[in-house]
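Design review, sub-item: ligand-bound model
Attendees: FS, YL, KQ
YL presented the inputs for the FE2/S2 (inorganic) cluster complex:
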Amino acid sequence: MPRYEIRIDNTGETYVCADTRTLLEGMEALVRRGIPVGCRGGGCGVCKVRIEAGAVRTEKMSRRHVSLDDEAAGVVLACRAYPMSDVQLKALDTMARCVERGCTASFLDAARRAQRPTL
Ligand code: FES
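KQ shared the predicted structure:
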């Protein structure tokens, strides 16, 4: 099975991810605190990233979190994206905050905050 190098622009970290694993699963394999994992099903939006270079294939993602325009700009949910080449990505929103600072909150708390309506 092909394996690709994934680079997280926010931190400069890299990891290897097989084409059968999602970008999020690969990040978790870093065994690093700060990777927010919510629903793992494309519904909560906490794992949003933008593909800066490389190719991915995606499964169904919530349009609430990734609009068609977002998707056209390379935004995907890491739990629904599989690498098809080496990939350079930038973590966004909740994912960026956690990756850059090392979140200590539980993954589910991160998911709940992401789903909280804006007033
Ligand atoms: S973990 Fe919920 S959308 Fe990816």
